[in-house]
Specification:
about 325 residues, alpha/beta, Metallo-beta-lactamase, Chain A, 7-stranded mixed β-sheet, 5-stranded mixed β-sheet, about 20% helix, globular
Length: about 325
Amino acid sequence: MAMKLKMLSLISLLCLNIYWPQQGLASDRKFENVYPFPMKSFWDAMKFRFTRDPAKSPESRPVKGTPKVEQPVRGSQAAITWVGHSTFLIEFEGLRVLTDPVYSNWIGFNSLLSATRVTPPAISLEQTPKVDVILVSHDHFDHMDLPSLELFAKSDLREDVSVTFVPAQHWSMRVPFVRNVRLLGGFYLKVKDKTLYFVGDTGYHPKLFNEIRERLGPVDFSFIPIGAYAPRDFVRDQHIDPADAVKLHKDVQSRQSIGMHFGTFQLTDEDIDEPCRILNGSTAANKLRTNEFTCMDIGETRTIFSGELQAENDPSAKKLEK
């Protein structure tokens, strides 16, 4: 198992550029956010757990969309399939990318103490085609699922593909009381003249995402979390809500964005489908273009032509620090 995980690490880290040195270096064997925020204590977490009043969600429901994978995708097209939560299968320029693959029915140490899956994966592990790149944003159970990762083999990254690891405002923890010993963040993927930004989990900071755009330029397509935001006084620093997601979208000058991190697990107190409803109001209030920032159905495969994707990357963007 350890050998498999070491091999999997190469998938995400090969040709990887890490910038913002203060987030790439450990302090006392722990990583720090670029813009630190106060962490919630164990007692804060216990108070949240035992006093919360979550919206009622169904115990289970079927997948809405009909995924279309392993179909021919022309060089001028990109096909995006939402498997669920933060898991997307992205096919473009002859490349297959899988983000935060989580296929398990529950997330955590055991099924009794963990959030269980409301909506099943749109495609099973067995139906998932061979992928070229796996992006894992951080070590939380709803993003790094070891049983799922073990079934993927190592792939070699093409020379025309670059992956840049970028900061997020969040935290990592796999076991109680051991926090931020693993790096966390998002990924900026560039293939030929197309760019994708997988944000991962994050809170909002007015400087952070502008700095990412200044260093890397605008992005063609972004995957931005919009769920797990209630109550705001507890999760504001670590999870954006739909209004903050629109701010992030505008900060990085994303040509188009898709909302994620909702509709699969009941993690916090808002209704499981509320994030998408609120996002629609936020995009209208900010006068975004039609389809500029939308949601997908789990299981939906959306094909987008490169003419709709290609952003004019800022030629004045700063070069990455080595």
